[in-house]
Amino acid sequence: MATTTDARDADIARAAAAIADPSRARVLRALLEGRALPASVLAGEAGVSASTVSGHLAKLLEAGVVRVERHGRHRYYRLAGPAVGEALEALARIAPPLPVTSLRQSTHAHALRRARTCYDHVAGALGVALMAALLERGVLAGGDGRFHPETAEGDRLSAPGRDTTYRLTAPGRAELAAFGVDADELAGRRQLIRYCVDWTEQRHHLAGALGAALTDRLFALDWIRRGSRRRVINLTDAGRTGLERTFGVALDA
């Protein structure tokens, strides 16, 4: 996928054609968690045969939307980068919702609103609560964590934020280091602090290298776990206690 910021120079039609097929769209939704998945799993997510998903993956690879990793004899696919995840989230903002036809789908939708991955960082109610806590504690500064549609210029729901510049404070850097997230080690990998306007909560959640590292740390501590459905994450009892004690994050049971 093109990385230029000028849409006039980007082959939008080519990228759009690559993701327009419903089966390929389901493959990409499965990869929005940020994990690398084998073709067999993606075939199940898309509801197609192994041979059919191979053709879809070839088209996505050709368009630069996904990339492949080799681990021994096995191949794993993941989104080509954060920009692809951001583009898919932005498309979700203008796309009509899929019809909810079962209690299972309704429960899944509720779980996504509560806590989910947005590419490689935490989103949903948990994500915005964590962002608010970091601002309240002075770990981050520069904004209030809220989406203000009446004054927004670049900010849109379910899209990377542009109107607010957050920064990591000196005390915040030390607090995160004590928690196991060293911001100095993240320098140069990608932009340290970004934010997304969460489409379910209509507030900001933390993205960028810092958001990804913080999410990795929460997984490592077993404070959050991946759910049985794509993109859903579950807050563990240890996580509920730990987040409240460490950052003052309090969520309803």
TrEMBL record:
Residue ranges occupied by any HTH arsR-type domain in the UniProt entry: 4-99
Entry-linked InterPro entries: ArsR-like_HTH, HTH_ArsR_DNA-bd_dom, HTH_Metal-responsive_Reg, WH-like_DNA-bd_sf, WH_DNA-bd_sf
Stored Gene3D superfamilies: Winged helix-like DNA-binding domain superfamily/Winged helix DNA-binding domain
Signal peptide extent: none
Entry-linked PROSITE patterns: HTH_ARSR_2 (PS50987)
Domain of life the protein comes from: Bacteria
SUPFAM superfamilies reported for this sequence: Winged helix' DNA-binding domain (SSF46785)
PANTHER family (alphabetical): TRANSCRIPTIONAL REGULATOR-RELATED, TRANSCRIPTIONAL REGULATORY PROTEIN
Protein name: Helix-turn-helix transcriptional regulator
Naturally occurring in which organism (per UniProt): Streptomyces endocoffeicus
Origin organism lineage: Bacteria, Bacillati, Actinomycetota, Actinomycetes, Kitasatosporales
